[in-house]
Specification:
Elements: H1 9-16, H2 22-34, H3 36-55, H4 61-71, H5 96-99, E1 102-103, E2 107-110, E3 113-119, E4 126-133, E5 142-144, E6 148-154, E7 157-159, E8 162-164, E9 169-172, E10 177-178, E11 181-182, E12 188-195, E13 198-200, H6 202-212
Antiparallel strand pairs: 1-3, 2-3, 3-4, 4-12, 5-10, 5-13, 6-9, 6-12, 7-8, 7-11
Helix pairs in contact: 1-3, 2-3, 2-4
Bound molecules: zinc ion.
Residues 3, 6, 31, 35, 37-38 line the site of zinc ion.
Length: 214
Amino acid sequence: MTIEHHPEEATLAAYAAGRLDLGQRVALATHLAACPRCREWTRAMESVGGAFVEDGPPSAMAEDALDRAFARLDAPAPPPLARPRETPEAPRELPGFVRRYAFGPWRTVAPRVQMRPILLPEDGPTRVFLLKSAPNMRLLQHEHSGLEMTCVLQGGFRHEGGHFGPGDFDFGDDSVSHQPQVDPGEACLCLVAMQGDLRWKGFWGALARPFVRL
Ligand SMILES: [Zn+2]
């Protein structure tokens, strides 16, 4: 796996300082699970910023649970009985800490495009879902009203910002409007963390819009 696209350092710093909401942290931790370079950078930041984090408000149990889950990525496995069960049929491309969340059903949101919500244990401004597209698809032109983080788990796509394959991280905000082209030969599976509404354009967009809300 050759990772070419990483989160910006400001985003990694916000993660290390505990300033991201749970949905965004899931997206960042998914990239970190695949990327030794960003993992090392984030660990260094965490050791510098530890005092800041300790002075902050007490974190919710679920966020703390995610921290501990992430800390286990490199740690020896805990005893089997202490381990939450993974969701059956959760894609094996996902890191283990994501597989332990509950998942909603797959839904078709556009021809040959499906999404599956990941049900986080707390409400927040960021929704997280899996997006799966058939090979060669040109996804709907869309723009969004908030931040969007995309982690490629399998396959790949290309848009104006370059090519994105497994492990790559794509960050979009409301200044971005793009139409990704999925690679030929293999379905593309991504984990997406999104704030705000996805605004699909065009006819299919109008049809898909009611299904995109989680
Ligand atoms: Zn990285």
